Amino acid sequence: MKNNAATAEISQPYAQALLSIAQSNNLTDEFGADARTLISLLSGSQELQNYLDNPFIAPENKKNLLKQVVGEGANPYLRNFLLFLVDRRRIAFLEPILEQYLALLRQLNQTVLAEVTSAVALSDAQLQQVKEKVVAITKAREVEVSTKIDPDLIGGVVIKVGSQVIDASIRGQLRRISLRLAN
User: Which residues of 10-28 are buried (b: 16+ CB within 10 A; e: fewer)?
Assistant: First the structure.
């Protein structure tokens, strides 16, 4: 289990270095898309995460696997960065590094991340309404939406932007009514 403070301390400089490479080559958005893809790969495959985390697997084997995963069509700067992480024995921190990179990219683009939890999948029109509401609240240029489904909400949505939470769910309304009745 990785310590969160140590993970943040290790991932921050690498994420900033990746952003610097991306900015100097005008590839910030391309790297952002690749980072999202890699994060979903890592979070979706525990075997891949375990393989990269294992200190007993030879670095060359890890490099070969990464070359296969990203493919020949991948950006050479990003591929070299991944191989560099293997050389520096920091590949186990790939996911936090990529998440930190996305946070830095959002900051650079004046974009906020809105985590939307709903009882059922939202339509495109509903997601657009959520984005407009978040832009109105935060005055950000753009909104990146991360959605989750939680049937326990019964209906409505819970929107989290940074430390601010907007609970417009039926479960939240029932909880507030219960608290008022208890008083």
Answer: bbeebbeebbebbeeeebb
Among all chains, which residue has been given the structure tokens 């403070």?
Answer: 5
Among 76, 91, 107, identify where a domain stops: 107
pLDDT tens for the chain, 183 residues long, are: 456 777 888 899 999 999 999 999 999 999 999 999 999 999 999 999 999 999 999 999 999 999 998 887 788 999 999 999 999 999 999 999 999 999 999 999 988 999 999 989 999 999 999 899 888 888 888 888 989 999 888 888 899 998 889 888 888 888 889 899 988
User: Are the beta carbons of 78 and 31 closer than 8 angstroms?
Assistant: yes
The pTM of the full predicted model, rounded to 2 decimals, is 0.79
Domain boundary among 107, 127, 159: 107
Torsion of the alpha carbons at 162, 163, 169 and 170, rounded to the nearest 10 = 170
Domain identity same for 29 and 115: no
Domain that holds residue 174: 111-182
